[in-house]
Amino acid sequence: MKYSFKNDYSEGCHPRILEALVKYNLVQQNGYGLDDYSQNAAKLILQKINNPKAKVHFVSGGTQANLIVISAFLRPHESVVAAETGHIFTNETGAIEATGHKVHGVETADGKLKPDDIQKILNLHTNIPHQVKQKMVYISNSTEVGTIYSKVELQNLYEFCQEKNLYLFLDGARLGHALTAETNDLTLEDIAKYTDAFYLGGTKNGALIGEAIVICNENLQDEFGFHLKQKGAMLAKGRLLGIQFQELLKDDLYFELAKSANQKAMEIKKAFEEKGCSFLSETFTNQIFPILTQNQIGQLSQNFDFYVWKKIDEEKSAVRLITSWATTDSIVADFINEIKNLK
Amino acid sequence: MKYSFKNDYSEGCHPRILEALVKYNLVQQNGYGLDDYSQNAAKLILQKINNPKAKVHFVSGGTQANLIVISAFLRPHESVVAAETGHIFTNETGAIEATGHKVHGVETADGKLKPDDIQKILNLHTNIPHQVKQKMVYISNSTEVGTIYSKVELQNLYEFCQEKNLYLFLDGARLGHALTAETNDLTLEDIAKYTDAFYLGGTKNGALIGEAIVICNENLQDEFGFHLKQKGAMLAKGRLLGIQFQELLKDDLYFELAKSANQKAMEIKKAFEEKGCSFLSETFTNQIFPILTQNQIGQLSQNFDFYVWKKIDEEKSAVRLITSWATTDSIVADFINEIKNLK
Amino acid sequence: MKYSFKNDYSEGCHPRILEALVKYNLVQQNGYGLDDYSQNAAKLILQKINNPKAKVHFVSGGTQANLIVISAFLRPHESVVAAETGHIFTNETGAIEATGHKVHGVETADGKLKPDDIQKILNLHTNIPHQVKQKMVYISNSTEVGTIYSKVELQNLYEFCQEKNLYLFLDGARLGHALTAETNDLTLEDIAKYTDAFYLGGTKNGALIGEAIVICNENLQDEFGFHLKQKGAMLAKGRLLGIQFQELLKDDLYFELAKSANQKAMEIKKAFEEKGCSFLSETFTNQIFPILTQNQIGQLSQNFDFYVWKKIDEEKSAVRLITSWATTDSIVADFINEIKNLK
Amino acid sequence: MKYSFKNDYSEGCHPRILEALVKYNLVQQNGYGLDDYSQNAAKLILQKINNPKAKVHFVSGGTQANLIVISAFLRPHESVVAAETGHIFTNETGAIEATGHKVHGVETADGKLKPDDIQKILNLHTNIPHQVKQKMVYISNSTEVGTIYSKVELQNLYEFCQEKNLYLFLDGARLGHALTAETNDLTLEDIAKYTDAFYLGGTKNGALIGEAIVICNENLQDEFGFHLKQKGAMLAKGRLLGIQFQELLKDDLYFELAKSANQKAMEIKKAFEEKGCSFLSETFTNQIFPILTQNQIGQLSQNFDFYVWKKIDEEKSAVRLITSWATTDSIVADFINEIKNLK
User: Fold this and answer.
1) Does the beta-carbon distance from A76 to C225 stay under 8 Å?
2) CA distances from B164 to B76, B137, B341 (A)
3) Is-above-0.90 flag for pTM?
4) Are residues A79 and D91, on separate chains, in Cβ contact within 8 Å?
5) From the candidates C2, C68, C87, C209, which should be mutated to test the interface with D, based on the most D CB atoms within 10 A?
6) A241, A249 contact by CB (below 8 A)
7) Structural domain that includes position A92
8) Partner of B13 at 20 to 30 A CA spacing, among A45, B328, C300, C337?
9) How many angstroms separate the CA atoms of A145 and A281, rounded?
10) B92 contacts in C (CB within 8 Å)?
11) DSSP string spanning C136-205?
């Protein structure tokens, strides 16, 4: 069977998580997120962001996190601005609209939103009350195309949002990868400081399931549990989420796993560069998009699985390769070997 | 720390499930429910219900299962009838209404719906199109108060629903307990035969999370995946659900765990009976509701935790005790001992 | 053709309204409620309620008014309490649930809610966050069964709501009839003082269409126009609503029409009383519910149309008779004559 | 006061409608659209479209028509494609999203959708079930920028929709104007033949309020009344809508009014052409978009009111001028005189 670079959720979870699940398995705990592990994991996050007033809630997946946060924060006539590549705009089967809110899609070069992009949307919606009112900006870090925000970019965006009375919400399905990229200059504390809310992704970084929603803006924290329950996100055995995040965060495992995934991707990237390949976008996280000829794609496909992402011209296409915490050195070595042999 | 009889989700999962998670942990699999384990678990269910045309979908929890099934099946003007004790009527923070549908609550003696209960609601809604149209009946087995449906009761209800053009949907959060109760005469095959859809609960019967939605009515199977995704229920690592249900269903583990929970409850029930206690309702599953004096409640509370369920009079209240697959013989023996010593 | 006592919207509108429509027909005005007539009508209402800070919005009908007010005021997890006879509970095809909110129905003797009725619902919903949060109380005056609130009843209810942090919203589809009933002791000013919002019904009191929503609670006034537009309630020619309410309110026409309808109903009621009939409920507005034998119903049905409302026993049923501003003295005389001849 | 060319809903209604309202005012009728006038008006429409199996429903306004049709036809995971200038995409405060459905906006040159525009959206949504399913195409005729569809364009679009299993819904807020434009080659019968549903606008063509929804596709007709009621669109005095459409359609008044509005616009257009002005788009209906210098705009603004629509460059902007059934010859003559005097 071919090895798959299709995504970062092909395996189960990091072995330390399974060990923790075994260890605590028969300890009786309260349900619905009131277990010791969830409460401890929440504390670990508050320490790491250096904000004891933030609130943490654990949910199963990213679409769930997005739809609950957005529907909890917005009033019925309010909308959210996202990049056209943003997960909520195009990859969640209308989950946000299903809660009643319009998502504005903005075309971007690199999956990142800038104040100007948002201002354009604001400029198109001045006919009050005949148009929706923009009230939230949604970004992803790393983005769906593997790019990351710099500190000054995030600061500028947050200041713009503050000025325009917009909430800034950051989808962190791959936040670990963003914060451990070699070009990154943001800390988790910065993320909490320059957003109203964000989530810290577990599913794509070593957990079986789980994302940790962090609500930094105190005005938005109220009664959030009702929304979790109403949307079917409150697990009876919330311990499953708590144990995992406790294990990932009690030391630096969470960041080590992401960093390892990034490094593997960078090694592969380097091999493509040495072969003279160009890339669809310049990324430093665990997603790379080399542009290959049809022949090269055919060669690599014999032993490896990946997505052909975008046709460039008659001869060439960009492919997407994703590494993860589970990608081994030996697989990377095998793959690089095949890259070296590409014609 | 006191031992808790408060619910059947206080522990993690049956050890065999953890073993299976460990065993398959590093095998690469497709995401979003297309993994081998989920597909195999679905096949096992189809065999057990003897209906190869049914469709199976795994989700994280009961509220999620309920809201997705109901919103996928109903058109905007259609409503669902439930008992007032029904989980969707009173314990899901308006999850069904949040998808746009009215839930009619019917007062019942024992948590079970009968054709007459539903007919009363139909009779109150004849002013077309000024009132919602009833299109679904929601029942739970075992019910939220521990009672179960007999075969003839379920058949009658299903025939009534067929005649009135109503879908019958069965919440099986504790279906294992219902089907292994000593007074039960229904099989899993019957459940599939006499409902349009149901779910088989994992969370309360030995799994970490997970409920298996089974859509028996072929007209309702179409495009269900869209609804799962839109409501945030499609796990990237669907393998987590697949592995658990595969393990629970590859032999009779699922039913053995439920039966064990029931037996423990019946042992405790017998001890109360021998002490001369009466009960709020007559149950044969893993929930019992003995009526005790305030003194007796105080005595039992010293070493055990449980809910005081309903005040009967100035002196007495019914309490709720729930056993599970994880309740041990020795705990039951200790508890029975305390019952014997009650004054 | 038989004369109909089936409802109070069988005719068009009071002739003065048609005259006003003709008079202003070709004057150019701004659209969407920014016309002079709507603004003037709003001012007239603020004067009558003696509250210059309230906000007025005109919409087409009662269901529309209800669904917009409720969905604009509530957050997703919040619910509204109503009598089981309340229009939103049973006669609006799930309009409120379609905006995502649960409506709790309370059984009442006379269609009116008392603090105790609401407290019972609150008592059933203490399991935070697993149950919806009650945030609004919906009442109608006059109620759907023709009864009215006294001043002390409304004050008590409002104080209770204030104490429990609940909004009080009054459906005034027949508010004119309530305030001109011979037993009434409330003024329009009281209505505004003891509710967070209410609406003043036009459709059932002489207008072609139109209800005037009045938001008294200043915290709830913000951005209401967005909700009107989103729900399809903002008429391009808002003048149609403005002209009608301006005409109804520039003197006491609105109240005179309602009073006339009430008086006609009371004359008919008296005739039934003199005949020895009893009534389903004691009403002093434009709806009466005499209890008649099948024979009597048959006799009256020969020349008049009305609803048989509720079966009392094998022999007798209550019928519903509604009068309106358009009911003439001569029709009432004819009908009373037939009552006198009843066997 | 300045004469306004800002829109086609600045006046009341055509005098014949007021006469009819007066004439039938005191005739008792059934409520909720079951009055004789509504039923007769529906028949007149069925005759004009030559399709006795279509179903007609009258509602108050365009946003209401759009949101009810779309939410009634689509299942929760289905979406609708519109031009970015489409009313539902940008001018209804998220009314469609508020019912749970995504609206895809397509950039167009002239406000009209072509099969290729839709195919592009389909091509972006092949990742089942992670993306919404396109199920409806929404067009306007005349469009929001005054352009119209030719017969072959509409046929091609309908065939494409049929092939792709998409419903075609036409917003006819200004359908009268489209069908009476000098370049038009479509009939009302064609409109019904080449769409699944459409509406015939009254508000912008001589009525006080009112749009007539026509459902041509028999599979979509079922239980539509429930949706009308639930969304607050079912007027108690449906007669108001019925009388108006009966009057507009019993002869050719509806088309005469639209044609008159178009002719007035064309006279003004010709005056601008003779002055050497160019236009933002080439229109033959009651909206024109001449491009003027700031000085010219200033001159015309002294006695006339209109919207400055789009800045072209530092010196010039396009303005929007809308005529209506109520625009008189003398106003047009005055305005043309001012155009002739423009510098």
Assistant:
1) no
2) 19, 11, 54
3) yes
4) no
5) C209
6) no
7) 15-253
8) A45
9) 8
10) 130
11) EEEEESS-TTS----HHHHHHHHHHHHHHT-EEEEE-TTHHHHHTSTT----HHHHHHT-SEEEEE-GGG
Q: Which residue of B has its CA nearest to D68?
A: B76
Instruction: Enumerate the β-bridge partners of residue A78.
Output: A133
Closest CA to C136 of C169, C184, C87: C169
Q: What is the per-residue pLDDT for D235?
A: 98
pLDDT in tens, C119-170: 999 999 999 999 999 999 999 999 999 999 999 999 999 999 999 999 999 9
Same domain, A243 and A308: no
Contacts of A134 in chain D (CB under 8 A): none
Min Cα distance D303 → chain C (Å) is 14
Contact residues on chain A for B208, CB-CB shorter than 8 A = 21, 237, 240
Domain-located, residue B6: no
Residues of B in contact with A226 (CB under 8 A): 93
Give the pLDDT score at C226.
98
- DSSP-derived secondary structure for A166-193: -EEEEE-TTHHHHHTSTT----HHHHHH
- Please report residues of B whose CB lies closer than 8 A to that of C121: none
Torsion, Cα C78 C83 C86 C89, to 10 degrees, reads 50
Distance from CA of D194 to the nearest CA of C (A): 26
Nearest to D35 by CA among D292, D237, D177: D237
Residues B74 and B210 in one domain: yes
Give the DSSP per-residue string, D259-279.
Answer: HHHHHHHHHHHHHHHHTT--B
Listed residues C191, C219, C253: the one ending a domain:
C253
Does one domain contain both D281 and D248? no
In a domain, B8, yes or no: no
CA dihedral B181, B182, B188, B190 (to 10 degrees): -120
Helix then strand then coil, in percent of chain B rounded to 5, is: 40, 20, 40
C46: its two tokens:
């603020």
Q: Which residues of D touch B (CB under 8 A)?
A: 32, 71-72, 75-77, 99-100, 128-130, 132-133, 223, 225-230, 234
Instruction: Considering only the beta carbons, identify the residue of D79, D94, D130 that sits closest to A77.
Output: D94
Residues D30, D71, single domain; the answer is yes
Q: Answer yes or no: do A60 and A207 share one domain.
A: yes
Instruction: Work out the mean pLDDT of chain C and round it to a whole number.
Output: 97
ipTM above 0.90, yes or no: yes
C198-230: pLDDT as tens digits: 999 999 999 999 999 999 999 999 999 999 999
pLDDT at D343 over 90: no
Q: Chain B closest CA to D26's CA: distance in Å?
A: 25
Residue D2 located in a structural domain: no
Q: How confident is the model at residue B297 (pLDDT cuts 50, 70, 90)?
A: very high
- Nearest chain D CA: its distance from B58 CA (Å): 15
Cis? peptide before B76, omega within 30° of 0: no
Domain presence at residue D6: no
